[in-house]
Amino acid sequence: MSESYELIMDSTNKIFKHYCTKELLDRAENGHWPQELWDVLAEAGIISIGFSEQAGGVGGDYIDAYNILKLAGKYGVPVPLAETLIGKWLFAEVGGQVGDIPLTLALQNDSNFSFVDEGDGYTLGGSASAVPWARYMEQILICGDLNGKQVAALVPLAHAEIREENNIAAEPRDSVIFSQVKIDGLTVYQVDSVLISEKSLYYLALAKAAMMAGAAERVMELSLFYANERQQFGRSLHRFQGIQHHIASLAGETVACITAVNTAVQALQDGQYKTEIPLAKMKVSAASGKIAMAAHQLHGAIGMTYEHSLHHLTRRLWSWRDESGNESYWGSVLAKSLIEKNSPTLWEVLTDEQNLLIVD
Amino acid sequence: MIKLELPVVKFSQDQKDFRATIRSFLQNERLAGTFESKCDSWLSGDSIEFSRKLGQKGWIGMTWPQEYGGGERSAIERYILTEELLAAGAPVAAHWFADRQTGPLFLKYGSEEQKQFFLPQIAKGECFFSIGLSEPNAGSDLAAIRTKAERTDGGWLINGSKIWTSGAHISHYMIVLCRTSPYDQNQRHAGMSQLIVDMKEKGVTVRPIQFLTGEHHFNEVFFENVFVPDNRLIGTEGNGWKQGMAELAYERSGPERILSTYPLLEEMIHILRENEDEAGLKETIALLPDLWTLRNMSMGVAKYLEEGQDVNMIAALVKDLGTVFETNVAEKARLIISRIPSMSSNDRLSRLMAQSILHGPGFTLRGGTTEILRGIVAKGVVAQ
Ligand SMILES: Cc1cc2nc3c(=O)[nH]c(=O)nc-3n(C[C@H](O)[C@H](O)[C@H](O)COP(=O)(O)OP(=O)(O)OC[C@H]3O[C@@H](n4cnc5c(N)ncnc54)[C@H](O)[C@@H]3O)c2cc1C
């Protein structure tokens, strides 16, 4: 957490609250790109968190950045904040530079991009699916093969064919296809593609977990408000024991999500995240389904309407829990690492304290 | 008094043949591209042509007396039909309420004239009904309804509004539960009646309420001095609460409380088998014991209903368990086959997943919320 943490959170919160109204979210779902919101975020330095001032950023660390993403989830911020932040960090690590425009990324190992050097540029072929916000973006960070070497590049999307698809929160998750197009003046950077794609996946998974924790917080707020306001049988809903159980379970799961995210973010800041990020994403993904269901149950039919804002959050919870790896995905990753690791016990993995057990 | 035990239903050869007939009909329709399999198709799949087709085959009102256009078949045969339709995800929403509860309501409480007028049209698949119970301030607490009907020359004048009315925009009539005597705090269930409102009548306004998927399934309906002639009162004036409660048993225990997400389960198994994914199949199959048990329970209730038993408590119990199962299918699916659920995807599984997830919360709300049902079950069990 940086020194200016409180200040950053406070101003970010104000911006989100002001711009990310129900009306904006509705419009964003229907094909509107909120340029004004993006400009304000850029102006305030929020898209450059995690970079020192020398590197053109505003300072701040992972803890700042992920807490901003938590807020972004809470307000359903309809721009690729996580993708831009993570893309910028990763690109900077390999020596590239990005300005203040939003970007998306597709660094996963299984995408099949390949570059051919043409002297004055590169010919690019390959495709990626479920690319966040691609239709509105000017550039995409990808990595691919160049003569048997792995390279990363920030590629203008003007050269790509975009097939529009959405997740169930109506957020763009497009297919991006480069059909052997020649791109002039492109710079490529040699990378360890396994490492960069792994980092991208872990960072994005934690971003989704943080955003879900934020959304859960808001779902909880809406539920408390409604349980107080709505009357049936002559009493506020929260007076009924059945509803109290929902509220208790919402509260419990929300606190659990926030704790899981905070723990994993601290671990990332400390440079060790291989167990913590999967555990956090699994926990939050599993909880988000329960949270969404309890909140809808408590809201009755009104929560099933487009007019109410509950669905903007619950649909995000339902989408994000499956993005960047769901419980089964990360479960098998952990299972594999348990098998591969030099026989630590489960408890050792959980506590990450295997060395303590070695007695000499 | 009803025990916590349900009859076991066994199928006769005729009934098995009937199932085969329905199945091949549905298979042909699907191949012909008449419909696309959908989850929760009894809410979201409305096709006037498909309803007509079923009507022509005698598959609406199949248990009703022949003199009213029915088929005089047993409740178990109707059960077979409805579960086949739902498992196939067929578009049955348009006629669903009329077939399920309005028909039986007429048969039990309707006048001779009403039966002769409405039942044959319903059975032909040409007359759809919607159910007007909930109001903005009366959800679980249904006795809090305020919509009222006052006497006028030759009938009634209705004023008030209903909300969440599924299919009001495609129905010809609505059964409106309303107050025909002023609200009395000490006798909350008294003074209500069921009136048949012609949706084309002057003063009826239907306003769509956008479902959270963006689609149009339910509505708000306003009544402003809507005239209802005397012969459109169902049963006895003031007996609306009791009559309405009797309908709920039909509403709560059917296969639609178990199978709303079945098309998803089917598609999963299909894909896993194609991929020879043994582990995935094993996990999916873990859902089957619940499904099998629930189906048998639901058929038992259908049998009891036919025998005229009081199934209020047991129907509530089946709906509670069944709807929890329906949502469970969607929750399990995403962990077994990873896809990004999407309503508009080209991939069938992604679409079925999206439908199941987004419709999911409604399963445990509509037709009596889980909390209310558990209250009924708890009270019922304690009373025994
Ligand atoms: C998809 C869908 C279709 C529908 N179609 C129709 C239709 O065709 N016709 C129609 O008339 N209605 C319809 N409904 C409305 C449905 O019947 C109501 O949603 C339901 O009765 C609950 O009422 P409510 O939504 O006002 O919630 P509320 O009654 O306000 O309840 C909100 C929450 O409080 C809980 N609660 C309320 N009272 C108690 C209590 N005493 N103890 C414990 N918990 C309590 C509820 O269980 C729920 O969790 C539909 C609803 C949905 C979702």
Characterize this entry briefly.
The complex is a heterodimer of chains A (360) and B (384). By secondary structure, chain A is of the alpha+beta class. Chain A has helices at 5-19, 22-29, 35-43, 62-75, 81-93, 193-229, 241-269, 276-299, 310-320, 327-340, 346-351; strands at residues 103-106, 114-117, 121-132, 139-146, 149-156, 161-163, 173-184, 189-190, 231-232, 235-236.
Strand-helix topology:
The complex is a heterodimer of chains A (360) and B (384).
Chain A: H1 5-19, H2 22-29, H3 35-43, H4 62-75, H5 81-93, E1 103-106, E2 114-117, E3 121-132, E4 139-146, E5 149-156, E6 161-163, E7 173-184, E8 189-190, H6 193-229, E9 231-232, E10 235-236, H7 241-269, H8 276-299, H9 310-320, H10 327-340, H11 346-351
Parallel strand pairs in A: 1-4, 2-4
Antiparallel strand pairs in A: 2-3, 3-7, 4-5, 5-8, 6-7, 9-10
Helix pairs in contact in A: 1-4, 4-6, 5-6, 6-7, 6-8, 6-9, 7-8, 8-9, 8-10
Chain B: H1 13-31, H2 41-44, H3 48-56, H4 75-87, H5 93-109, H6 112-123, E1 129-132, E2 148-152, E3 155-166, E4 173-179, E5 192-198, E6 204-210, E7 216-229, E8 233-234, H7 240-252, H8 262-274, H9 278-285, H10 288-306, H11 312-336, H12 348-363, H13 370-383
Parallel strand pairs in B: 1-4
Antiparallel strand pairs in B: 2-3, 3-7, 4-5, 5-8, 6-7
Helix pairs in contact in B: 1-4, 5-6, 5-7, 7-11, 8-9, 8-11, 8-12, 10-11, 11-12, 11-13
Flavin-adenine dinucleotide sits between chains B (43, 130-134, 139-140, 164-166, 218, 362, 365-366, 369, 371-372) and A (230, 232-233, 237, 240, 242-243, 297-298, 300-301, 304).
